[in-house]
Inverse folding.
């Protein structure tokens, strides 16, 4: 692999930082003190949902084999328990879906290379039973301060150019605009505006080409001790990737080297409009993944409370 | 149906209270002011997960046809994108499950009787597409103050007797023990201890017979303007039911008459132990359901922050 | 509905023909004598599979909500039962799919109109549990003589024009070309050549517009006492339909009025090439649907033995 | 592994017999001549279904993780295409199920040991995509002569003792009773009567302990050039196994060493009653598996025509 990659990898590596058995990586930055302090970001008590709706009209277009949009079917429709419609009737449903089909977190085990998982866990821990190490169930409760870095806004565009690779300077500029200092244990949400294409029904355009994180942003997230990071795209990192011969390097830097939990398909539009209106870019963020045992990822219904 | 039921139904009915088109019922009690005040319950910043793990070893034993425990399968295992194991490899998974299989919220449309949904919505709104009215996606962000009413503890037992019907006096006694006053917009969590049977592997015993809510507790929840209510059982209300000829009356009172969102299979054991230790029975509760469009229920990963 | 429809409906109606409780319709034409005679069509003993492969690369493109191509996932991969790879290891899989996603039979309950199912069964027989009447499990063993009517070949084209409505004369001409007389209890397979588009990867073109059966062919199938009928298209009948204000009339004539089981996505290309080569257009056909209880349709793996 | 096993394995091994690239094993015994001759077994034209119903009430009790009984849900119920109930309405369904949940064939890749698949195919051919070699889609059309060996009847019992290991002598005795000579290319169906327990609702008893094939029957099936073999049990071979330290040896002998396709959960009761009545124990058997690409097994709806 390219030298550029290895240079960054070495710089941001967190293996052993939280012990040889750690499976949570940078989530360890979220201490009770961090959580308590985060409540100070709640000023008016207004809440913003950051998830996209879960339905068969989701963003998946078949690019990832088998990662299907939620197919929800009914198990019962107004079904009288006793046969008498005037007594208790039930309606019930079930779903089949890719665990990373909608708004989700990647588990640290989702990406690997050279037979390595975060913190050096053996690759053999990945089986048909899922991820014995670093599964999404290891995340646990996720409530901390969130910070919105609205890069599209700071650049004065509706949305970033397709294929634009975010830089450290972009993140600094967005933080400055938001008058917010990123602290250890924050979850950083970076807005590109790309999800507007999904809202407009252009699922293919939403998918590719896409702006996103780059090898240049990984050291920034490392230096700021960010606990987790999410954005409003489906690939998460810039796609097509920075180098043709280096597929998805940001996944490898974040998940494998840093142990940095990352999220995709987060809808930041309504939150961003509110932040632009009142100038407050920090908030209490609740974003606990569904605890699928040994899951490689999981749906999340994140909420920002300002 | 029994006169007892209709008397309570009339007393607790909320139809029209929040307008003819309302689909959120008592969740309307949660105002921004309520949310802001709830952050005052965070003192140390410690978080408690209240969900049970999502796996094929879940609590479902086939009592509800088709409501299966999560069956998670792998779509890819350490699969090299380029064919080269030293570059990006991916692991991915999908799931099929009943939407009410684990820790979940019922949507208001989950139960009906006499062709009535909450707020008089037409029964025809329930189709193979799901619940056009009062679906779980109508809930939105759910962050407010939570209060634990530990009825098992106030009665001095490990867990309530199987088949015990909770009373209004039980709730008052638990609130008094917890030195907490239930306020408008609170979510109330009632602990019976029943989930200990699930932890012990006794899924059948966990299911039935079970303590739970009764027709006596509905007016109490109504009077206190509770926003939503959950407990640590699978049926939620006492089972077998109070009257043999009156199946699941509490579902009808809560969901249909009051528009009171209710949750099941919440694991309150660790939280309760902590509350007993420090005497603090209120907390910030985050419990946003996964936004399944038109869903009759949805998984939730609730977290209490003290 | 148009008078043309009702005229044909009256002519081909079979309600009561096999008793008031019949759920099998024209399959009743298949008697033991018919089956025994069908073995006389086996001359060389060569077998031809008529099904398309079942995979995520199937013909479904999302036109029918929820009818997904088979998504097969692995439950175990070379998993050692005792932990020792030198002893018994297992590999196992599961699938989620629309029951009519691939090569399939429609059950007689699949289509309805004016609250009527075949033979006047009550519409209330259709619930979330499936089809209590006329489900695909009522078909039972399906082995009889098959006859290929190669309309594309008799017209001297690779495949029929998109949107071409088959006529009775087409069927007669194809039978004459094949030197075969359709008999009571035969299953008739009609080749349009449309499935070539699927083989070429043009799933949209395969779906629509498409040649297929019409209101003109229903009386022909009725008069010849055909037991069941299938073709090599996904809609089965000509699409767009013959009259803009009369959606899918052939489904209603066949399934509701006649009780004529019909099949779609049958791959007749290899069989047709062989029939053209040796001039033998009849064969033993085995086409028993998978017995899904109360299913609205079912996969079938039909085989022609010549 | 035990010397007994290796002795039998060496004797019955078919690797290379049909070429280095063969993926069909003993199915190669079924030639067109065999198929043509098989039609001679049809005397009256009566058909017998040999499959169990596909429903959520199937035989799976959770012994094999994830191999669930069919869960069928409705995609549409009497849904009017134009909104007008008097025009075309559709009902449609989907299913999720283990591919070996009901009456099925194992693919040759289903079992392995010492990193070996039938014919020495590399174990790496088994991935999340399924079986690249020896998948169930390689079987193709399956129509040949079937022979019922009714061991329960020849021993004069309703059903064989739980845990009874079939012997070569049992198969000879049943053939003699049936006045049938097993020929090259036949599919042999062996009746134990065990499935009576399933009919009686005793799913656990049906599963275990169970009579079935043994290391003693493999050489017999090899010597008779049997094309495929099925019985009326869920494990197929005797269970508990013959030696405590030798798990499922018959699977390894049949699938890995011989390339002998094997079937489970075949319901032979009605067929056996008829054979006992008329003394005819051979028939035309149609048993083509659903062509799941790369499947480790597949449902089949076998039919015997006498």
């Amino acid at each position: 692999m390219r030298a550029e990659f290895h240079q960054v990898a070495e710089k941001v590596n967190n293996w052993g930082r939280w012990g040889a058995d750690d499976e949570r990586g940078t989530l360890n930055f979220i201490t009770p003190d961090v959580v308590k302090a985060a409540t100070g970001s709640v000023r008016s008590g207004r809440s913003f949902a950051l998830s996209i709706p879960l339905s068969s009209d989701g963003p998946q277009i078949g690019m990832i084999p088998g990662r299907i949009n939620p197919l929800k079917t009914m198990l019962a429709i107004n079904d009288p328990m006793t046969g008498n419609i005037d007594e208790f009737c039930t309606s019930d449903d079930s779903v089949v879906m890719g665990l990373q089909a909608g708004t989700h977190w990647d588990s640290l085990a989702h990406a690997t290379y050279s037979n390595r998982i975060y913190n050096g866990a053996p690759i053999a821990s990945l089986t048909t039973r899922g991820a014995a190490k670093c599964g999404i169930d290891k995340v646990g409760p996720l409530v901390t301060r969130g910070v919105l870095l609205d890069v599209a806004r700071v650049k004065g565009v509706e949305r970033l150019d397709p294929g634009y690779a975010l830089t450290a300077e972009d993140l600094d500029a967005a933080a400055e605009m938001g008058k917010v200092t990123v602290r250890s244990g924050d979850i950083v949400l970076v807005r590109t505006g790309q999800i507007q294409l999904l809202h407009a029904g252009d699922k293919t355009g939403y998918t590719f080409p896409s702006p996103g994180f780059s090898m240049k942003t990984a050291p920034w997230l490392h230096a700021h001790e960010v606990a987790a990071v999410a954005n409003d795209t489906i690939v998460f990192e810039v796609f097509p990737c920075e180098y043709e011969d280096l597929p998805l390097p940001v996944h490898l830097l974040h998940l494998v080297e840093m142990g940095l939990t990352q999220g995709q398909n987060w809808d930041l539009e309504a939150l961003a409009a509110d932040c632009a209106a009142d100038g407050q870019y920090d908030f209490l963020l609740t974003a606990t993944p569904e605890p699928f045992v040994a899951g490689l990822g999981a749906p999340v219904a994140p909420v920002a409370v300002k």
Observations:
- The first strand of chain B starts at residue 47 and ends at 49.
- The first helix of chain B runs from residue 3 to 12.
- Chain B is about 20% helix and 20% strand.
- Chain B has a mean pLDDT of 97.
